[in-house]
Give the backbone structure.
Amino acid sequence: MNNKEKPWFMRLTIQNNRTGQQSSAIYPCNKYEMLENLNWCQIPYGSGNYSHLATSYIRVAADSLQEALAGIIENKDHPPSIMELNCLGEQIQRMSSQTRICLEKDISEKPDATIVEIINTAYLLLSENVVYDGISMSDRAVLLGDDEPYFRIQLIVDSDTEELGEEDGIWINCPASESDLESAAKQLGVKSYYDLETGAIYGVIDEFLAEEYCEGMPYTFDEINELARAMKEYDVIRDLGKYKAILNYESYVDIKKASVLAEKLDNYEFYYGEELGEVANLYRNHNPDNLDYEELIEELGFEDTNYGIVRTAGEPEIRQRGPELG
């Protein structure tokens, strides 16, 4: 892609096939953003029960190339996976405007094309000797591998010297060991990693860190590393939606408490992909005052977050209706 050209993004809507809940999906993106989109749709970790709509969730008008891709994006017989759409988004972002025109023309000539065919067409247009086999990116689940970090943090010598880029400093995968940090300090020419500053952060809950930072509550690399260690130790990734709902429920707790909460997920009651009325219906026999479902949910202490409905387990409880007195 010509550096002077504006980056191209595929701006779509991702949808929970069971409940119809929707979220924004902008490709290309990183795996952490994919997980956030799925969590927002309240799709269980490891599920591939989603589909894409070719229109923007945030109502950004589609350009002619995205409109041409609509039949491929919404193909019901061969629905593309997140990873396939992300790969295509990466390819298109690297194309010049002229190459994109060629891709759009090729798509118009293949009304029944699948995502596999279009990915391979894009490789050809980029003059890359790659053939997508239709398998390696077809898994519909988005999983974080055992060797993949919970956070990636950019460590730099001095953040005030110049505008930072992705290539500046050293990227550390968290949780990180002491030897990882000693090596980073040595490569950057300082005595200790304590002499380094934190640049960009990507991770499974980087939106939580961004919110905390914006509210003026600073955190250290060690605190982020400890959070990553706790999340990995207690396998939070498998209940990531619940964990995010708890962080929302607790009103964006500080980073130290977030580490503690990683081991306390069982202390919370959680429902994802459910409406408030459906959860209230579970307690219909514990509603002596005949409250409507919104009042009942509030009385029970539930909170409806973007990730699901959550409350502290076991409290408060609605008392059972007692026997009528004659």
User: Anything to note?
Assistant: The first helix runs from residue 31 to 40. The longest strand covers residues 10-16. Strands lie at 10-16, 22-27, 50-53, 151-156, 170-174, 197-203, 268-271, 303-305, 308-312.
